[in-house]
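Aim 2 progress. For C-factor, the working sequence is reproduced below.
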Amino acid sequence: MEKCPETFEMAQMYSYRTSKAALNMLTCCQAEDLKIHNILVTAIHPDWVRTEMGGEQAPLTTQESIAGMLNVMSTLSNKHTGMLLDWEGNTIPW
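Predicted structure tokens for this construct:
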């Protein structure tokens, strides 16, 4: 949500953006609910990927995105619970 002003013009997809906001809240709520069971809940953004939705101009292949996300998953710890990370492990502001 913090980046909406800088990204809105290039992607004015209300329903897509709204569904992502709901998923972000779900991540936060599940992280709070499940931390007493030591269950880690983290959302990972795959970035702009060359798919039917992403289009040919997207910079990442599916293989690059998946490899990056798998690498991030292998480094997660409890300090990451409730966070949104990109495919390289960088924190994305809610």
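The chain has a mean pLDDT of 92. This observation will guide construct design in the next reporting period.
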